[in-house]
Amino acid sequence: MHDGRLLWQVSLTSWIDEYLEQNGGTQIPCFVTKLPNGSEKGTFLAVDLGGTNCRVNSVKLHGDSTYTIAQAKHVVPRNVMINASHEPLFNFIAEKIQDFLGANFKADTREHNSFKEKNDYQKLAFTFSFACTSISLHEGVILHWDKGWDIPSAIGRDPCKLLQEAIDRLKLPVRVVALTNDSVGTLMAQAYTSQSNISPLMGAIFGTGTNAAYFERMESITKLHTTNGHGDYSRFASMAINTEWGAWFDNGVEILPTTSYDEFLDAASGDPGKHLFEKRVSALYLGELARLVFVHMIQDGLLDMKVDQATSPLFTQYGLGAAFLSQLAAAKNEHLKEIVPRISSTLQAQNVSTNDARALRVISMAIVRRAARLAGAAIGAVIIQSGQLDFENSVSRFSNGMYRDSGTIGSRRNPRSQLAKGLAASGTMLGNLAACFKETIKQPTQSSPSRGTTVVWAPEYFVEIGIDGSLFEHYSTFEEDIRAAIRDVPQIGFQGESLVKLRLIQDGSSVGGALVAQSVR
Ligand code: BGC
């Protein structure tokens, strides 16, 4: 493996500029120029297409930071996720919208033709959580299928248009008005529901896939100025960026900690060489990494258990879900006996010993801890890039730095020239991440302020990371490992980390989609 610091120095100022300037599949400007302030109102349909499920929702924003949501959740069939044609997928979604309207809005399933005015149509936000560039608030281009999906005919096409066509085939009174990503949705939902002393900094997803969105200063997003047809956004101070951090290292993989299991998983995946960070961090892949290690241990005779290759999920690719890892990791060392039956039934294994349980638990914990620490490093990099956590200016700057009502969330310090200086001094976002990775491979170190130091620290303002996803929600240790990694980022440390709140945002994709739709006139 290369020395991460060497890469860091070589790429110091180039990577972030490159990602913000070019039409690559990361650092994607989303045309959302304002964070909600909680006063938004209205009722919207929202379709959330994630890695596993398709959720159809009706979201009512009450205008006081609260909402009500009605939801129908459907597992997307495997033959729809992997199909030469995109039509089965978009027909599937349109049918689920039809069912939802039928069940929830009887009056609105009237014949298409009876709707005279455009405004009679229900506005729908489409949260499309796959790599997709945005062209406007309601148009995009699908770049790449990830999370095990593969629908080649959709690549290069606009998901909103494809969905609208399927909706029109069923003559539904629905107009797709907004396109968003789950990370952007989570950021929006976080801002809508946040308290006044909180600066919403980032929306992050740790579920089947992983991603994050934050607000970037407009002058740093030169990609926007160089691509035709985007319109003039110069009057806005900042814009939401869908980082697509799952793919951040696809050209610089030497920085990522890599084992032979990572290499095997990637080579056997549907998209080798792509989304390499995601393949070490997200739920879809953690179970698979564990499966590969367990199989290796069984084949090397390191475990007592006996497993029948024909029946055990251990011998099926993606046969182990991340939920199993969370059960193993959550088991207490002194109660290992209790998880033996669960291991036997899940793996269809005989003669499972407590030593086996101990070994499987240690492997699971290592895989989950690595994922959480990589996640913490990536979060740390975005925190630094945002400029919102800066001890020299400390708390008072936070209170001045956040002015989301004017649509300019983010630090008002750091215009581009200052940013460039800052980057040269402290590294680019990816540079920071490279440095963080060096730290993350180690055990957590800086979990408390140094001894003998009297810390008088009563902050009134916090930055907040809104997080959605099963890993964050269900892994008991995930948050603490993320926090430990953030503390280990030298520019953040214990004090900086104490200003960072992590908050679970449920329904972020759907509520955030509704908020984006609300902003479309
Ligand atoms: C996709 C992102 C998405 C993330 C979390 C990744 O595989 O590329 O667009 O936000 O998963 O769902």
Description:
- The chain is of the alpha/beta class.
- The chain has 20 helices and 15 strands.
- The strands form four sheets. It has a six-stranded mixed beta sheet, with helices on both faces. A five-stranded mixed beta sheet has the order 4-3-2-5-8. The protein has a two-stranded antiparallel ribbon with strand order 6-7.
- Strand 2 and strand 3 form a beta hairpin.
- Helix 10 packs antiparallel against helix 13 and helix 13 crosses helix 18.
- The longest helix has 33 residues.
- It is globular and about 65 Å long.
- Beta-D-glucopyranose (BGC) binds next to helix 6 and strand 10.
Radius of gyration: 23 Å
Mean pLDDT: 82
| Count, helices | 20
The major β-sheet equals: 6 strands, mixed
Low-pLDDT runs of 5+ residues are 1-16, 107-117, 393-428, 440-453
**Strand order across the biggest sheet?**
1-11-10-9-14-15
Strand content: 15-25%
Broad shape = globular
Give a brief description.
The chain has helices at residues 4-10, 14-21, 78-81, 87-104, 159-169, 182-193, 222-226, 260-268, 278-281, 283-299, 322-330, 340-347, 354-386, 394-401, 416-426, 429-440, 470-474, 478-488, 493-497, 508-519, and strands at 28-29, 41-49, 53-62, 67-75, 122-128, 131-136, 139-144, 174-180, 198-206, 210-217, 238-242, 306-307, 349-350, 462-468, 500-504. It has 521 residues and is of the alpha/beta class.
